[in-house]
Design a protein that fits this description.
The protein is built from five helices and three strands. By secondary structure, the protein is of the alpha+beta class. Strand 2 and strand 3 form a beta hairpin. Helix 2 packs across helix 4.
């Protein structure tokens, strides 16, 4: 059995959230987790029932080499290597969804709403950082063969220029700068 490595718990949970139930298409999933041995390597196994159709769902990922402790205000999905679970288009989709959930200005927001916007924008910046990890040294853009998922290929096909290093760096910096407005 060939397993992919989840570089963090956050990455594993994001991957599972993006995988629809094969029977009914639902994405809600609240798994239990355990650490197991698979072919002599430690892995995390997530198992649960689809709340919509009752199908048993299971995901197993190799454990990361180093544990990343979650910090909601400074999201981090993995080490310096590109993800084995999500492709660059899926990461940019996450960045778009996260940034799109946040208002542009903190004016008039409650402390809770400011905190949620801060987390959304920092998640967007971190997701763009994950896209950048797919650009090989000396290259200026993500190679087209890095897009493996239907969602990722669709995001790439919509506007391939979004996957250029310079543009990604500007977007990442912009999300970080905007997020700083929401710090209480």
């Amino acid at each position: 059995m060939t397993l992919s490595r989840a570089r963090s718990s956050a990455e594993a949970h994001l991957y599972m959230r993006l995988q629809a139930c094969e029977v009914c298409g639902a994405t809600q999933f609240s798994p239990d987790s355990s650490v197991v041995m698979v072919d002599g390597e430690l892995a995390s196994r997530y198992t649960g029932i689809c709340p919509q159709c009752g199908t048993v769902r299971e995901f197993t990922f190799l454990l990361p080499d180093e544990v990343i402790f979650p910090n909601e205000e400074e999201p981090e999905f993995g080490d310096d290597q590109p993800s084995e679970l999500l492709d660059p288009g899926e990461w940019l989709w996450l960045a778009d969804a996260s940034a799109g959930a946040a208002p542009a200005q903190p004016d008039g927001l409650s402390a809770q709403a400011r905190q949620e916007a801060l987390i959304d924008l920092r998640t967007a910046a971190a997701a763009v950082g994950e896209v950048l990890k797919f650009i090989p040294d000396g290259a200026e853009e993500v190679p087209s063969e890095a897009f493996r998922s239907p969602r990722g290929r669709a995001v790439y096909a919509q506007e391939p220029g979004r996957f250029r290093r310079g543009r990604l760096e500007v977007v990442q910096t912009t999300y970080r700068d905007i997020s700083d407005r929401f710090v209480s």
